[in-house]
């Protein structure tokens, strides 16, 4: 008689447990389900409980997504990002870096390039600061000596204030070392003397220049430089020029002391003896002469520019005595092989031409028109002489141009 009431109480207890809210539900204010007249099976109660959990989980997920979306909109609208370093502070971390602005680059391109070299923290911030602080001044093409991790304001000041705080140095292509020294001394308004510059160049090894170079000739890269006046000395200017030459060699795939000597020496000859459009062809001709000691030119380069460099003059014409002088280590008429070293500082285009010369059958070249740069090539000396006559005829018709 007592077993049936006990079973009834057990079922009621089970239903009560199913209907009772969990601790989390109680804290959320859910009181559970109260049964009045409705008869609900235990399976239905469990299903209802699962649905309640699903609804609550869905609601929480939707709420979280809404919070994330609102957060992203807020960050984008007000440009607030705790993980983004918008700007560095001060004038840099002391690590120097050469930065070049190419002709025609936009402010956005310059800003991105500054970021890639870790000079600034954020391109957008730099553009904002430039627009506010440049006072209408433009960013001019040239190479600037900056530091890594500078504030945008400091970079803007260095780039646009060239008239007040910057030494502007412009070295044309084909300039010799002594001519470049004069250009630097003049550009620095006497604050860096010729003596200081020559002293700074007296130990080429300090700049990482191989020992097989007789001097720093060939390493003072042509181009425009804008260097801060404050804290600048002769050595920093020389470092900037050498750094650009090293960058050109790397871009052209040139490495190793002997290979570097050969490329810079040949490139300096090519640049003075040919028009840019003829660099690769003339580089191939020089190789033909050097690699064939029993060929048309008996292994002689025969460059007027090398001879005049050794003489310390500039001229289009040489005497037979000058061409025969073997004591001139730069005389490529009298001495086979390369001269003692470069005869000027070449640029990237001539370096690339020498690193990848044209494969051609020629041994001679001559520019027959100095105005158009027309150059004619030949395999034999006899053919070459006809083109030399054309050049001489042009010189007669253009008095004073060939001296």
TrEMBL record:
Its EC number is 4.2.2.29. Pfam families: YceG (PF02618). It catalyses: a peptidoglycan chain = a peptidoglycan chain with N-acetyl-1,6-anhydromuramyl-[peptide] at the reducing end + a peptidoglycan chain with N-acetylglucosamine at the non-reducing end. The record marks 273 as: Important for catalytic activity. The chain crosses the membrane at residues 55-75. It is found in: Cell membrane. InterPro entries: MLTG-like. One of its GO terms (cellular component) is plasma membrane. Keywords: Cell membrane, Cell wall biogenesis/degradation, Lyase, Membrane, Transmembrane, Transmembrane helix. Belongs to the transglycosylase MltG family. Functions as a peptidoglycan terminase that cleaves nascent peptidoglycan strands endolytically to terminate their elongation. This is Endolytic murein transglycosylase. It comes from Rothia dentocariosa. The lineage of its organism: Bacteria, Bacillati, Actinomycetota, Actinomycetes, Micrococcales. The gene is mltG.
């Amino acid at each position: 008689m007592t077993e049936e009431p006990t079973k009834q109480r057990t079922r009621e207890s089970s239903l009560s447990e199913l209907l009772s809210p969990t601790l989390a539900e109680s804290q959320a204010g859910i009181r559970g389900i109260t049964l009045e007249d409705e008869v609900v099976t235990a399976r239905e109660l469990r299903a209802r409980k699962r649905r309640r959990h699903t609804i609550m989980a869905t609601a929480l997920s939707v709420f979280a997504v809404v919070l994330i979306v609102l957060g992203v909109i807020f960050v984008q609208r007000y440009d607030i990002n705790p993980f983004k370093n918008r700007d560095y502070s001060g004038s840099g971390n002391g690590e120097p870096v050469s930065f070049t602005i190419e002709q025609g680059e936009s402010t956005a391109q310059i800003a991105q390039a500054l970021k890639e070299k870790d000079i600034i923290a954020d391109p957008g911030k730099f553009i904002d600061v430039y627009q506010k602080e440049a006072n209408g001044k433009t960013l001019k093409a040239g190479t600037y000596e900056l530091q890594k991790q500078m504030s945008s304001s400091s970079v803007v000041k260095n780039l646009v204030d060239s008239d007040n705080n910057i030494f502007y140095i412009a070295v044309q292509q084909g300039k010799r070392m002594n001519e470049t020294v004069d250009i630097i001394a003049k550009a620095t308004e006497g604050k860096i003397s010729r003596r200081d510059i020559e002293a700074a160049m007296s130990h080429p090894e300090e700049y990482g220049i191989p020992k097989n170079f007789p001097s720093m000739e060939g390493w003072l890269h042509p181009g425009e430089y804008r260097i801060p006046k404050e804290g600048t000395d002769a050595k920093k200017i020389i470092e900037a020029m050498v750094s650009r030459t090293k960058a050109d060699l790397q871009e052209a795939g040139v490495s190793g002391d002997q290979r570097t000597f050969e490329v810079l020496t040949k490139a300096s000859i090519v640049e003075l003896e040919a028009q840019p459009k003829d660099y690769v062809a003339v580089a191939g001709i020089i190789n033909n002469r050097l690699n064939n000691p029993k060929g048309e030119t008996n292994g002689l380069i025969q460059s007027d520019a090398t001879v005049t460099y050794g003489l310390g003059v500039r001229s289009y014409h040489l005497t037979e005595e000058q061409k025969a002088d073997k004591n001139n280590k730069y005389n490529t008429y009298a001495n086979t092989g390369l001269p003692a070293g470069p005869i000027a500082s070449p640029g990237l285009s001539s370096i690339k031409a020498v690193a990848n010369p044209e494969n051609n059958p020629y041994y001679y070249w001559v520019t027959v028109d100095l105005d158009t740069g027309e150059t004619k090539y030949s395999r034999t000396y006899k053919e070459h002489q006809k083109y030399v006559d054309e050049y001489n005829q042009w010189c007669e018709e253009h008095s004073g141009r060939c001296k």
